[in-house]
Design a protein that fits this description.
By secondary structure, the protein is mainly beta. The chain has no helices and 10 strands. It has strands at about 5, 10, 20-25, 35-40, 45-50, 55-60, 65-70, 75-80, 90-95, 110-115. The strands form 2 sheets. The chain has a 6-stranded mixed beta sheet, with no helix packed on it. A 4-stranded antiparallel beta sheet has the order 1-3-8-7, with no helix packed on it.
Length: about 120
Amino acid sequence: QVQLVESGGGLVQPGGSLRLSCSVSGSIISLNIMGWYRQAPGEQREVVATINKGGYTNYPNSVKGRFTISRDNTKNTVYLQMNSLKPEDTAVYYCNRISTSNSPYWPWGQGTQVTVSS
C-alpha cells in the first residue's frame, strides 16, 4: 500500500516562501511522473507542478517562475519550493503521481495547508 505524507505548510505573508515535502512509501517515485496538486475551498483539485522520470518539470502559468518541483530519489521524497506567495495560493497541497490509464492515482495523503495572508 502506497502512503503519501505531505508536510511543510503553514501561514505565510504575501511575498513569503515555503518548502513542502512529500514522503512516499510503498512505491518508487523515480518510476513515476510526480506532481503537486492543490485544492482551495469550493474549487477542484488542480496540478501546480510536475516532474517526469528524466527530471523535466512543468508548471501552469499561475505558478510558473514562483514554484519549483524537485525530488530526491534516495529519500523517495518530492519537494515543492514556493516563492513570492500570493493570497490566491491558499489551498491544501497534495502530492501524487500523474494519473494515466495504466497508473491510477495512489491513495491521497492528508495534504498540507498553505495559507497566504497578512
